[in-house]
Design brief:
By secondary structure, the protein is α+β, with helices and mostly antiparallel strands. The chain has helices at 21-38, 51-81, 94-97, 139-152, 195-199, 214-217, 222-229, 233-236, 260-267, 275-310, 317-327, 337-359, 366-383, 391-401, 405-427, 437-447, and strands spanning 2-7, 12-19, 86-92, 108-116, 129-136, 155-159, 167-174, 181-187, 209-212, 243-254, 429-436. The protein folds into three domains: 2-116, Alpha-Beta Plaits; 129-145 and 269-447, Trigger factor, domain 2; 155-254, Chitinase A, domain 3, CATH 3.10.50. Helix 1 (21-38) crosses helix 2 (51-81) and helix 4 crosses helix 10 (275-310).
Length: 448
């Protein structure tokens, strides 16, 4: 096979490939012999069909298939070995392809259009100054987290009078003559749908008798009423009158005091010894979570900075549009000009990132991807206030995440970004600036 690559301009090239019979003949013969062994043609035993008949029936199709398979393989080998910086994939010149004659021809010429990546230099140095935003948690955020930890270490206590959220136990009796009664009935007025019925329990004390209508209180919910009244669902509709509840017990879940038990439950035994240390540790926890957002903001700022520094890249737009149209989902609408221009912007940033990754010799392995999955899992647990998650649990969750192809692809990109951000930080001058969550979010929205 003979290859000739000609640059048409700075953004596109033509690749001409000459294929002669000697390049494909042996493979075509081998494939036809396999056909002969498997062919089932009336009048001939398997494997005994004359080769002439096989060639007559299948020769042209096999030739076309084997030439195209060879062509695809060798074109990509040529591009890889010659380091052709290509965008998308080679596009066959349709007018030229239409002239190919696989019936009579032996030697073939194929022409491809190639979109070339633009030349640019995405360089960064200590002379490049960028702001790194250190997001600070508010006192309210820390207070809320403190209370969350205290709530988790709380306990149920018996109290004398009812407050919202308490659980009430008592004897429930239907007011109607011959009505049913339920001993040791348990209910939580907070779950009642009707606000007027719920209000009947405000300030109620142990020993009080509260008259209410369960059917109204629970808005006729059969499942809840059947459970409370200990009747079948079919009987619920007939129990639509008032009931009395003689309160025998009121139970309240009380958050723990801020003490060593809470400290140990949150961060491990004796890792924290005082409330001041506890709040500082929670602040560190928030800052670590926020660092992901700070890093992403830095990467987006670097994107803006480098795209402005490099300037608008030149692309073979007509050729790229054809490539995108060919690759779009079946029956999808044609790509609008607005979407096409957005794609070019994203492509520019993709090329810049690729160059930086190569320049900083960034490589990732399975351990890096697993690490990214564990960090994502740790973030999820942290959102629920679970800071001291066992390593084996994190790893198990992370491995489950990696079984999903889309999730794995996203985590591979995240692992690359983590290393890229670290490399960028090491190669530029950073000015650290503390910032509130509110002000940081404003800055992010300004860039959107």
């Amino acid at each position: 096979m003979e290859f000739t690559l000609t640059n048409l301009d700075a953004t596109s090239a033509k690749l001409v490939v000459n294929v002669v019979e000697a390049d494909y003949a042996a493979q075509v013969e081998k494939t036809l012999k396999n056909f002969r062994q498997k062919a089932n043609i009336p009048g001939f035993r398997p494997g005994m069909v004359p080769m002439g008949l096989i060639k007559k029936q299948y020769g042209t199709a096999v030739k076309a298939e084997e030439v195209n398979k060879l062509l695809q393989q060798k074109v990509y080998e040529y591009i890889r070995e010659n380091k052709v910086d290509m965008l998308g994939e080679p596009l066959p010149v349709e007018e030229q392809q239409a002239t190919l004659d696989f019936v009579n021809g032996k030697d073939f010429t194929f022409e491809f259009e190639i979109a070339l990546a633009p030349k640019f230099d995405a360089s960064l140095s200590k002379e490049d100054n960028m702001t790194y935003y250190q997001i600070q948690p508010t006192d309210e955020m820390i207070d809320t987290q403190v209370q969350s930890y205290a709530q988790r270490c709380g306990e149920y206590k018996q109290v004398d009078s009812y407050e919202s959220g308490d659980m009430i136990k008592g004897n429930l009796a239907e007011v109607a003559e011959g009505g049913i009664s339920v001993s040791a009935a348990v209910l939580m007025p907070n779950y009642m749908k009707n606000e007027d019925q719920k209000a009947l329990f405000n300030g109620a004390k142990v020993g009080d008798v509260v008259t209410f209508n369960p059917n109204v209180a629970y808005d006729g919910n059969e499942a809840e009423l059947a459970s409370l009244l200990k009747v079948e669902k079919s009987e619920v509709a007939s129990k639509n009158g008032d009931f009395t509840l003689t309160i025998s017990e009121i139970t309240r879940y009380v958050a723990s005091e801020i003490n060593q038990t809470v400290f140990d439950a949150a961060f491990g035994k004796d890792a924290v010894k005082s409330e001041e240390e506890f709040r500082a540790k929670i602040a560190e926890q928030f800052e670590a979570r926020f660092a992901v957002e700070s890093d992403y903001k830095l990467l987006m700022d670097i994107r803006t900075y480098l795209m402005e520094k490099i300037g608008k890249m030149e692309f073979p737009e007509a050729l790229l549009r054809r490539i995108m149209e060919l690759n779009k989902a079946e029956n999808a609408e044609s790509i609008s000009e607005e979407d096409f221009q957005k794609s070019l912007t994203e492509l520019s940033w993709h090329l810049i990132k690729e160059q930086l990754v190569k320049k900083y010799e960034i490589k990732i392995d399975d351990a890096d991807v697993l690490g990214a999955a564990k960090e994502a899992t740790r973030d999820q647990f942290a959102q629920y206030g679970m800071a001291n998650v066992p390593e084996d649990l994190l790893e198990n969750y992370a491995k489950e995440m990696l079984k999903q192809d889309r999730t794995r692809e996203a985590l591979v990109n995240r692992a690359v970004d983590v290393k890229l951000i670290d490399a960028i930080k090491a190669n530029i001058t950073l000015k650290n600036e503390k910032i509130s969550v509110e002000d940081f979010n404003k800055k992010v929205s300004e860039n959107d």
